[in-house]
Amino acid sequence: MKVLVTGGAGFIGSNLVEYLLKNEFTVRVLDDLSRQGTESNLEYLHSLNIPFEFIHGDIRDYDTCMRAVANTDIVFHLAAQVAVTTSVSSPRNDFEINLLGTFNILEAVRSQQIKPMVVYTSTNKVYGEMMHASVVESTTRWEYASLPFGNPETTPLDFYSPYGCSKGGADQYVLDYGRIYGIDVVVFRMSCIYGPRQMGCEDQGWVAFFLIQAQLKRSITVFGDGKQVRDVLYIGDLIDAFMKAWKFRDRTRGQAYNIGGGPERTLSLLEFISIIEHDLKMPLPYSFSDWRPGDQKVYISDIRKAGRDMTWKPKTSPKEGIGKLTQWIRHNPDIFR
Questions:
Q1: Most buried residue among 48, 102, 268, 285 by CB atoms closer than 10 A?
Q2: What is the structure's pLDDT at 49?
Q3: Which residues have a catalytic role annotated?
């Protein structure tokens, strides 16, 4: 089977490409290598000594998308601008990458005589601030008052921030191309994904960023009160969901799924700092700053629909996953210095 992974040198993309290569898929990677760390991820993929095709290109260029999509069976569309803060400071760039770039991929797919399946990675930010969901405060976290299973896919979309608009618009374009043009599409509205080869920074990838800062003995800025809660999902469990979306495509086509750790795999920022301090047996200095635009006090994915349609559920506990990510950071200090 021939697979295209856009953004295949990124964190999620490089882990997915590694899995595909080791399982004898024919892989094509499209990446412009603009994000920090992508070149080292690409070097790692080449070090596996398993052949794959690499296209150094930009999804904002339609001809590049046409070349990348041609003669493929499935497209994992991961390439994106991924930070809310960057979208606020550079909204045009965010729009062109996330919405125009996705439109180009969809048009390239539509032009094919045999149309590949498209799996698109959206975000929980399409639900906005979720002001309708009441929350209660405890010592270390905010919690939903009345959503015991987390936020379901039936929650109305409420795009907030340029990032929410661009990803949400692309989310809806993907689903509508499935309806109008008969393309097999699946949308993953993802929560916090973490794992090896994640070059976390202050704007995005907070689990990896906190661990990197701790290893480098640098302080952390906590935006908000630190009690905001997210469900976290290890990268290996996400890859399992990708594969099951393909395996059960008779059920998953045309559907959007909330993909995350669910209620059993949640962390607040303050709780995660305590875990790091316990593991390192040293204090982790941090300070507080204002809340960021659109930052939900709580976001927890209701993942029951994915369980029903494609028998998927996370297997990796936060303790196990964080341990794997910590080991990878410790073994690759030069990347972060």
A1: 102
A2: 98
A3: 163
